[in-house]
């Protein structure tokens, strides 16, 4: 394929929070973003199923369509006979975010010391493979490992929903059935071609799976067999997954001679109306407007097209980004996502945190701090389950209650203020 047709998976979700929707089923591992009243939505979805066409007759209708797309009768029958719908995925499809995560919370959990340390371990462990991947695709090891860390936490979070169940349900009920049918048939073809065994094909509610969290159609276009066993296996082969990620970025326009971008300092009174990822200007034009790198040094000379990014508006860190940032963006169609990968890659190379502060007096929490916050809540008698660092609805409710107890603004957000207040309260309790 010569053209890069569309970013995988997320292209559907042109809503305000594409990343969150795509990752909804494993949201709490990394993003901690939205509260979905799932039981209610599932009840609605179940009613939809009851009113609508029966699942078996839907599958029977899909059978010839699948065959026209290259799925054999034997494959279709063997892998659909025992399927039953999972209406929870329809609830995810229709879920609206109730809680928007500020970018500083998002980055605090995605790019924390733990993930930097894990990423460095992975760089060392897979050094030889990553070197060959760079040779083949011209994408550097830190970038590939950063994508891996953000997508699946280095293979720890694949998602647990069976793909065939989710995608067959989404093919028969709800919005976007045409799109999901394509993904469903492609999943059957992945199995038919022997790349990944059906029981290993689990993922997000929408069907993103494996180390790289590719949708099945993205797998078909861009996954590669790098360990040479004849199978493209993004679930059980790290070399295949790393090479497939590099192939994705290469096809999305990655250039090995460019940085993704860097943090910059704007001169006083700078007109920020020129900001925006799509407004690319030659680097020298930005220099002429008085922009410098954040350490005060000059921008690279020349015509390199770059855009000014202000993820939190005028008051926070500012960045100049190149086409490589766009390549990262195309992986998941969210600027916050691309910035997380870019920043994690820099940290893996030894870079520090952003220099400019986010415009907040209550910065976000790392995953370790989230676990600590949860332990402190449990210590005060709140029943929120295990301290797993995932800020779900129950943790947020407990935060709200404890914020009220401690005289803080009761917004349910897991930030530094409530953590510090809980630490002091625990210390004075011990002392008394
Ligand atoms: Ca392979």
Order of helical and strand elements? HHHHHHHHHHEHHEHHEEHEEEEHHHHH
Q: Note the overall shape.
A: globular
Ligand inventory: calcium ion
Largest sheet: 5 strands, antiparallel
Range of helix content? 40-55%
Q: Explain this structure to me?
A:
The chain has 432 residues and is α+β, with helices and mostly antiparallel strands. Among the domains are: 261-348, no CATH class; 367-431, Muramoyl-pentapeptide Carboxypeptidase, domain 1, CATH 1.10.101. Helices cover 50% and strands 6% of the residues. It is built from 20 helices and 8 strands. The strands form 2 sheets. Strands 4-6-8-3-5 form a 5-stranded antiparallel beta sheet. The longest helix is centred in the middle third of the chain and has 16 residues, at 177-192. The radius of gyration is 23 Å and the shape is globular. The termini are far apart. Residues 1-36 have low confidence and may be disordered. The structure holds calcium ion.
